[in-house]
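Good morning,

Attaching, inline, the backbone tokens for the sequence recovery test we're adding to the shared suite. The designed sequence is right after.
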């Protein structure tokens, strides 16, 4: 297990203090890691800036970059069990998620963007100027600061890193201080895959390290996934420096359930979308709009299904719901549940921290509220935990306005047997992604990102290549 920072191809303990990363299933310390100082961030950025210009990387042919990424994917896949168990230990997600979703998705993204490395093309355009030839080329930006969250540390890192490297950029990564371990292990794998020194650097630590990275004048772009509040601060800093920025921020996804929907299928699909990774998913369905004639039935079935899920350590293969990632997050979830009670929502199941043999870990019982009103805080603010709200409606015409009555716009779900109704609602809802009659799925080829306060820019697909390149126009006289 790597615990040092990775700067310019070397492992270093840094020059500052240390911090602990804990196993959320037990609360015990897994390891102590270095808290990056401004000098450490400076060294990492300088290494990345030098590597960007060095012939080992700048002169590497696109086909060679593709081979490096493919080799990285192969090595990650070969060590998939090691990565999955480390992710589960550090973050808490059940092995069914880490081994079945997070690691395979990271492998997929490395292979997908390896394919793009040889296909990042420009265009030619007919101009209304005589005797000139005009073409464009896409060029890498330079040093990219990648700041990643604690809910899917490895997977979301690769969403950023794979297209950045495919386009020829270099990177300084600052993982969330709660979950840094698989990021460091990935740096080791990429070294073995043939990524030159300085191309991928990792600094560990808290907000101060992230701030130093955002403010560094040699960082050309920041890609951040995390809270909307922090995203706004990063956007402000980047705006003052005229620095490129991509933000994937919070969400409060509505799930719109039409009167004709198959309730049993809807409960199953929404249980997955609402409680995946203990609700620590920015696209989690957390507010369910259900026809008032069926709202009680839906709420009771959802509460029964949620309440029967098995909580436990993620390394136990029978676990369905693991701990939340930190004590801080556990306490925030509990505060929101208290708010829901005080606002008059009907608590149907859950509503407290797990006890008994799970008491030392950060386990929260899956919680379902019925009778939730639109103006309640639990229906408007991102909780980021296993807390679900059922909101009855009477008039289908109010669905889209109510779903859009939020500052967020990351994802939404629509459930209806009438495909016309479903698609009309999908068009009306202001969200970056809408799933119709299905739980949330992701693919490297499908753009991902939010509207409104859920972010700016897109990850995945060709859009991620655009996000890590800029266009240059070249004019040539033909006379």
């Amino acid at each position: 297990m790597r615990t040092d920072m990775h700067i310019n191809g070397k492992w270093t303990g840094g020059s500052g203090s240390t911090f602990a990363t804990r196993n959320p299933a037990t609360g015990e310390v897994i390891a102590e890691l270095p808290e990056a100082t401004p000098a450490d961030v400076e060294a990492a950025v300088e290494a990345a800036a030098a590597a960007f210009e060095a012939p080992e990387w700048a002169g590497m042919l696109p086909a060679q970059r593709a081979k490096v990424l493919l080799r990285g994917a192969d090595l990650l896949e070969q060590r998939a069990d090691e990565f999955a168990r480390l992710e589960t230990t550090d973050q808490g997600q059940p092995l069914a998620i880490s081994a079945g979703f997070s690691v395979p998705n990271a492998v997929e993204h490395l292979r997908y963007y390896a394919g793009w490395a040889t296909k990042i093309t420009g265009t030619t355009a007919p101009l209304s100027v005589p005797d000139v030839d005009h073409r464009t080329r896409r060029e890498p930006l330079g040093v990219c600061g990648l700041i990643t969250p604690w809910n899917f540390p490895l997977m979301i890192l690769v969403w950023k890193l794979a297209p950045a490297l495919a386009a020829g950029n270099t990177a300084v990564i600052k993982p969330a201080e709660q979950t840094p371990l698989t990021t460091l292990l990935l740096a080791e794998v990429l070294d073995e895959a043939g990524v030159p020194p300085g191309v991928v650097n990792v600094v560990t630590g808290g907000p101060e390290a992230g701030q130093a990275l955002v403010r560094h004048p040699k960082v050309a772009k920041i890609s951040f996934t995390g809270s909307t509040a922090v995203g706004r601060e990063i956007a402000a800093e980047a705006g003052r420096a005229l620095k490129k920025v991509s933000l994937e921020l919070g969400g409060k996804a509505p799930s719109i359930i039409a009167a004709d929907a198959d309730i049993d299928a809807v409960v199953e699909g929404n249980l997955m979308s609402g409680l995946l990774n203990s609700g620590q998913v920015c696209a989690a369905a957390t507010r369910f709009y259900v026809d008032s004639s069926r709202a009680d039935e839906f709420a009771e079935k959802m509460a029964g299904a949620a309440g029967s899920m098995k909580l436990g350590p993620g390394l136990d293969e029978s676990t369905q719901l693991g701990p939340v990632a930190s004590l801080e997050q556990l306490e925030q979830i509990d505060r929101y549940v208290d708010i829901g009670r005080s606002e008059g929502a009907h608590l149907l199941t859950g509503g407290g921290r797990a006890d008994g043999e799970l008491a030392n870990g950060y386990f929260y019982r899956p919680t379902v509220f019925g009778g939730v009103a639109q103006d309640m805080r639990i229906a408007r603010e991102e909780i980021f935990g296993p807390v679900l709200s059922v909101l009855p409606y009477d008039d289908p015409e109010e669905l889209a306005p109510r779903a859009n009555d939020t500052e967020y716009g990351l994802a939404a779900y629509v459930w209806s047997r009438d495909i016309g109704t479903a698609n009309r609602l999908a068009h009306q809802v202001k969200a970056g992604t809408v799933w119709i009659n299905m739980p949330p799925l992701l693919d490297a080829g499908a753009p991902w990102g939010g509207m409104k306060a859920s972010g700016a820019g897109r990850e995945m697909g060709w859009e991620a290549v655009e996000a890590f390149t800029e266009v240059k126009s070249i004019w040539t006289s033909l006379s």
